[in-house]
Structure formats: C-alpha cells, structure tokens
Design a protein that fits this description.
This is Putrescine aminotransferase. Strand 1 and strand 2 form a beta hairpin. Helix 10 packs parallel to helix 11 (about 250-260). By secondary structure, the chain is an alpha/beta fold. It has helices at about 10-20, 30-35, 60-65, 75-85, 100-110, 130-145, 165-170, 175-180, 195-200, 205-225, 250-260, 285, 315-325, 335-350, 355-375, 410-420, 440-464; strands at about 40-45, 50, 55-60, 120-125, 155-160, 190, 230-235, 265-270, 295, 310-315, 380-385, 390-395, 425, 425-430, 430-435. The mean pLDDT is about 95. Bound molecules: pyridoxal-5'-phosphate. The site of pyridoxal-5'-phosphate has 15 residues, from helix 6.
C-alpha cells in the first residue's frame, strides 16, 4: 500500500511531482506541465491568491470567471458548515425536496426580470454549466416533441462559443480544437459565425451595420436548414472564453426578431454573464432580449461550491408540466442543499453590497475609462469592456489590424509576463482578457492597470 499523503507537509516540488504523477488536469498538455511543474495555489483573500512560494497574485479572472463576490467570505463557509450539519444531502428525485433548494428556486424566479410579460417561474438545478447546457438540449427537444413538432431537432450555436465540455456542451460550443477530438459535434448541432467586429467587419463598415449583418447569419442558417427543423439558438450574451467578444448594439434586437419570426427557442447561456458580471442580475436584461431558457452556474455561488442550472421560461415550463408527464432527466446533485444554501447566502452578499449596481454605475464605467487608455499602447489594436469583462487585442500593425503570426504566441508571451508580475490575465489567441471580482475597488483597478501596462511593455520589449 502507498504511504498516506499529508498535503500540509509537502514542499512545492513534492506537490508538483505528485501532481504530474496523478492529476490529469482539464485542458492541459501534461508533458508540457510536467516539465515545468504546476503553480500550487494555497490560499486567497479579497481579489488576491497566493502560491506555495508565497507569491501574491492579483486574480483578474475571478478564478475561472466565478468568484464574483471575492475570496475570503467567511459567511459562505459558515452557511455551508451549518447546512452540512443539518442536512448535508438529500435527493430531489422521488417527490422529495429540501428547504434551501426551494428557497433558491423561488429567489431566482424573483430575481430574473420578466421581459414583455415573459417570466421565469421555474428552475432546473445541476452542478455545472456543462450539465445545464445538456439539460437545455434535452428540454428543448422534449418541448418540441410535446408540441407535436418532433422534427425540430437542430440547435444553432456560434463559432468560438463556449458552452461546456460534456459531449453536448462541447458540441454546442464552437471551439474547433474541441471538435477535433472525439468526433464532435454530435448530430443536429450547427454553428454560425460570431459577431466579432474587429476581425470580421468589412473595411468602413459601422458597428451597427455589422451587428445586423452578423445577426442575419442566423436567418441564413435557419433558411438553409429549414425553419421547421430548428429547435433553438443558443448564445452567450457576450462571448467569454472565446475572447470577450462584445456584440454591437444592433445584434441582439435583430436576433430576437429572427427567433420570433421562425418561432425557435432562444437559449441565453449566462454562465459567465449573470450575477452582476455585466451590471445586471441577468444579462438578457441588459441587452433587452427575451430568452426561453437561461443557463447559469459559476457565480451563483461565487464559485465557493459547484452549482448550476437553467431558468425555465413559462413558454417551455408550462408545456413540460401540463403535457409532459415525467421528464426523464436529472442529476444526483440537482438541488443539493449545501450548494443551494451557499448560493442563497452569496445572493444575500451581492444584494447587500449592490454588486450588480456598482458594476453598472461605478466601477464598470471606471474600468472602461482605464481600458480606453490602453488603446494608445503600440501593441494594442483595440480595447473593449462591458461591465466587468474586458479585452485587449494585441496586433502587429494597428493601422491595418494585422495580426501577429500565430506561432509567435504573443498572447501567451504576454500572459507569462502578467504571471511574472503577479497578475492573472487570460490569453485567448492574442486577445488578453479579464473578468475581475465585482468587489474590486477603483484603487485596485488602478493597481491592476499598472500590472497590465508593465506586461504589455515587457511583451513589446521581448518582440523587439
Ligand atoms: N457556458 C459558458 C458560457 C461558460 O463560460 C462555461 C465555462 O466557462 C460553461 C458553459 C461550462 O461550465 P462548467 O465548466 O461549469 O461546466
């Protein structure tokens, strides 16, 4: 038998050796990782994390877009502890329920704004964004079966979208690197181009004109497939993992016109964008469209414990409930009492500290001002923010928008300089992106800006 492992007694090198011997990480080249060793994160507070060598790092990615309320929230730990002592688990399959899940479903129904009288009165719980999007596929197809239109199977998504890593989630996503492994996408999922103005606009085309043109790629696709075969369109309000792609103002209203015209379901994947990230509880409110299903996860608990789900609008819920009988779908942890209790306490914090409001009216606009200044940096072709997500695109030639050769990996170079200076910033190709905790102060935005500027300068130096 192997000797028992006592993590607190292990040095960084020992942890790294055990890590590379046993832990298969998500989205990781293990040979590459083994050669240099994983960074071991030991603790966190506010907007900072520390590694096992004592280095303090400003976490401008909120973990993985999830720690919206910031680190070190003792009350979330206290709530989890109390709930574990009272009822650590019970399932919600066999006509049973539990108080935290009931309260959270009701709270989310209350928080989700109705648009034109379309309400979200029901919630289906899971443990992640990926599972929730699998639920969406099952639900959308079940809806159309019950509506007597079983031929409506196709779900349209977008290139470079990220909707998770399960078979359905990765298929809904539009990441070619993911599709290249494991025969994806699964049948009846197809993609249109993303509304990425900087890369796809014609010379001289306005943002508004491009937004309309990009939305009409959906109509072209619906007509190509046959509207009678299309079940749903799924999209992130702002594409996150694809590089913080913010659609022009004309995009979402035109998408709404198109889904209404053909009667297809609209799924808003708000795994990143909900819970204050864009300055609202839910992002569809910001853009004014009317989804039928809304995917959530991550910040519903500020990442303190896994929880995800789908807000189910009345259009779908009424059919499932009135005509559907048993819906043969669910997860062991659907409505997990501890996760739901933590979510309730997290929503309390967000409400008490008005986190969505401060992003909308205070720190969000300030972040936009700060990012505007990066436009004058010689490496930066464009800088954009939307609430508390932001992106910088690094280019070889600002005037012509010429990109760097892919194999120079300039984004990764810049990311390494960020880490070197104590900043987590993510690189998606040559787009440098952030999604900081919503608690970040103006002074901390300034502190982050200094670190970003330093990383940009060092990247420029390395390229010369
Ligand atoms: N949908 C979106 C928009 C996401 O950004 C993510 C994760 O980043 C997911 C779904 C998948 O969520 P999870 O990793 O919790 O399965």
């Amino acid at each position: 038998m192997n000797a028992p492992v006592h993590p607190h007694a292990l040095s960084t090198a020992e942890l790294q050796a055990l890590d590379s011997a046993h832990f298969l990480h998500p989205f990781t080249d293990h040979k590459g990782l083994a050669a240099k060793g994983a960074r071991v994160i030991t603790h966190a507070d506010d907007i900072y994390v520390w590694d096992s060598e004592g280095k303090k790092i400003l976490d401008a990615m909120s973990g993985l877009w999830c720690v919206n309320a910031g680190y070190g929230r003792k009350e979330l730990a206290d709530v989890a502890h109390a709930q574990m002592m009272k009822l650590p688990f019970y399932n919600s399959f066999f006509q049973t329920t539990n108080e935290p899940a009931v309260r959270l479903a009701a709270r989310l129904a209350e928080l989700a704004p109705a648009v034109d009288g379309r309400r979200f009165q029901h919630v289906f719980f899971s443990s992640s964004g990926s599972e929730s999007n699998d639920t969406n596929v099952r639900m959308a197809r079940r809806y159309w079966d019950l509506m007597g239109q079983p031929q409506r199977k196709v779900i349209i998504s977008r290139h470079n979208a990220y909707h998770g890593s399960t078979m359905a989630g990765a298929s809904l996503g539009g990441m070619s690197a993911m599709h290249a492994q494991g025969d994806l996408p699964i049948p009846n999922i197809t993609h249109i181009q993303q509304p990425y103005y900087y890369e796809l606009a014609e010379p001289g085309e306005s943002q508004d004109a491009f937004g309309l043109r990009a939305a009409r790629w959906l109509e072209d696709k619906i007509l190509e497939i046959g509207p009678e075969k299309v079940a749903a369109f799924i999209a992130e309000p702002v594409q996150g993992a694809g590089g913080v792609i913010i659609p022009p103002a004309t995009y979402w209203p035109e998408i709404q016109r198109i889904v209404d015209k053909y009667g297809i379901l609209l799924i808003s994947d708000e795994v990143i964008c909900a819970f204050g990230r864009l300055g609202h509880w839910f992002a569809y409110e910001k853009f004014g469209y009317k989804p039928d299903l809304v995917t959530f996860a991550k910040a519903v608990t500020s990442g303190y414990i896994p929880l995800g789900g789908v807000l189910v609008g009345d259009r779908v819920a009424q059919v499932l409930i009135d005509k559907g009988g048993e819906f043969n779908h669910g997860y062991t942890y659907s409505g997990h009492p501890v996760a739901c209790a933590v979510a309730l306490a997290n929503l309390d914090i967000m409400e008490r500290e008005n986190l969505p409001g401060r992003v909308r009216d205070d720190v969000g606009p300030y972040l936009a001002e700060v990012f505007e200044q990066f436009k004058s940096h010689p490496l930066v072709g464009d800088a954009e923010t939307c609430g508390f997500v932001a992106g910088l695109v690094l280019v070889q030639d600002k005037a012509t928008r010429k990109a760097f050769p892919e194999d120079w990996a300039v984004g990764m170079m810049c990311r390494a300089h960020c880490f070197g200076n104590g900043l987590v910033m993510r690189a998606v190709g040559d787009r440098m992106i952030i999604a900081p905790p919503l608690t970040m102060t103006r002074a901390q935005i300034d502190e982050m800006a200094v670190l970003i500027k330093k990383a940009l300068d060092l990247t420029l130096q390395e390229l010369q």
